[in-house]
């Protein structure tokens, strides 16, 4: 089973997209940002930092997720870049 929520309140704010995959013991958090003048890399990293700073993954951890994939997405005009950071529970 999978739960998908948009603008989900979690931690200290709202993540853009929040996915809980029950049978895979995995969760996904996606934060999308506008990259003015094509500053893709820094904006992607800012999105990941926002996920961490606002503790968006806390609910996934509380649900028992051992692996959380954090996606930082930067968009500018018709282009986008995505970075992924994997957080595994030790």
Automatic annotation (TrEMBL):
One protein family per Pfam: PDDEXK_9
Cross-referenced InterPro entries: PDDEXK_9
Record-given protein name: PD-(D/E)XK nuclease superfamily protein
The species this protein was found in: Catenibacillus scindens
């Amino acid at each position: 089973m999978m739960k998908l929520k948009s603008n989900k309140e979690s931690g200290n704010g709202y993540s853009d997209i929040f996915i809980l995959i029950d049978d895979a013991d995995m969760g996904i958090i996606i934060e999308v940002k506008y990259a003015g003048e094509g500053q893709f890399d820094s904006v992607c990293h800012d999105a990941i930092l926002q996920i961490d700073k606002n503790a968006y993954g806390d609910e996934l951890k509380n649900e028992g997720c051992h692996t959380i994939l954090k996606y930082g997405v930067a968009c500018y005009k018709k282009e986008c870049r995505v970075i992924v950071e994997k957080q595994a529970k030790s």
